[in-house]
Amino acid sequence: MTERRASRMLRGVALVVAALLLPACAGLPTTGDVAVGLVLGESTQDVDFLPVASGPIQGAGPQEIVEGFLEAGITTSDNWATAREFLAPSLQRSWRPAAGVSIDVGTETRVLTSSVASDAVEDADSADVQVRLDLVAIVDEAGAYAEAPGASPTMFALERMDDGEWRITQAPDGIVIDEPRFANVFDGYPLQYFDGGWSRLVPDVRWFPRRQSPATTVTQALIDGAPSPWLDPAVQTAFPADVQLAQDAVLITDQVAEVALTRPAVGLDQLTLSRMRTQLQETLKAAGVSVTQVRFAVDGRTLDAGVVELVDTPPDVGTIVVQNGVFGRIVGDEVTEIPGITPGVAAIDQPIVSIDVAADDSLAAAQLADGHVYLIGDGTFDELDSRPGLIEPSLDPYGYTWTVPAGEPGALQARGSDVVEHDVANAWPNASSISDLRVSSDGARVAAVVTVGQQRWVVVAAIVRDPAGIPLELGDMKQVSLISAPATGLAWLGTERLAVLVDPLGPQVVTQMVGGPGTAEAAPEDAVSIAGARTVGGLRVVGVGGQLFAHAGSTWREIATDISVLATRAGE
Predict the structure, then answer these.
(1) Residue numbers of the chain with a pLDDT score lower than 50
(2) Residues 6+ apart with CB under 8 A from 381
């Protein structure tokens, strides 16, 4: 047996080559604050650099062939034609590269072990090579991303061909890409699904190779696919199961997406067609495809499809704080009061721990120093929950305030303005504690930081509601990100990302995509709380001394002082 660490890139890997993105597939952000990096699904108009690997080197041994095959996963063109060159002819036809992606730490961490010693390769006709991958995450055949840290052994069988060259005869389906280059090869696209009331759209991020046309790729995934299992209980699609794409291409002409459907679409009613068009149109826009409308056709005949009205997204109103005892929106050095809420906050005679303001400014849920949670409205001040050990509450877009004790994650409750409690079933059954909770702006998902075993996880779950919008239960918990230190804050950044403030001793902000990778950056020293926003650039952090910080490029800038409470907005 021989063993060596694959600590170098394969000899002959080509230099990075430039490939211009198709103009119809590109888009630029048109709204929002200055953000760190690109918005999910958007792409630049500039030259896009795609890594390209080379084929087998003549005379390469079994380990070099396997190493080269793994490296070739970065080259997606012609259905991974380069990777197929490392395979025996019989396997070239049956190997399925699109079956999934194993994302590992890096090429230098791959350990290859061969059944044939290096000095015996010349006399051997067959060999087995085991590769140990240090996995970070996986992407399944549907494009869904999930963290999967840990070692993963993978076996390959090789034989010497008639020309004397070694080729792989047995290999698992799917490809391997190292984490640093994953985002250079794949892009994340938020497919849009309706919530249970057909009034809001909920994103479901999927990852597809960058070489493919986004318009065709996301349309196929939306029409022919299904929501991710964890999200499925809270969402629905307008596309009936018997309606599919009639052509494997979506053409964009003058910013109009031409979508050919199969014949069952002819019999659909106007409302269903309008929902289908709205769902696909918003999916294409979220994917960065420059379209103004979608046009459906069957056998060349255009279908009459309108659009449905969705719940309006409230404008981004800025940062809400308590500064020097005054509650409201802070702009420069002034705090503007919020009618109906500011007087109620001013009347509170004990310290305030947190305030979550409804998207329409009609209500606010506040936790006071006694740990109890109260609802503040126009002239009203009602106690909602007095259970011991409550974490900070979260309002949802339906007007329900979510509360739960830190040591009893399963005791999750939601209360409306009538102060009637509703137990939310199936709340994190495997968790022993919970530190943070935030309901998304669409009301279909809830994010939390929970402890499972000895590990702290950022998780999400679908929210199942009755026709009146009352929360009934949560779907199965999806683990989004493992964190190594206690969390002191959780927030939504737009609809696809979460921000987590971790480690009180050395604060960091972890920005985590729901269904994608995350990043970490140092937070301001002594940061104690965090508030979300529509964009990464809108994130706000408060220090223990009352300093309010905002992003300024890759650093933090102090923008205000004397902040006693950094309030949050429902859904952020």
Answers:
(1) 1-47
(2) 344, 347, 348, 374, 375
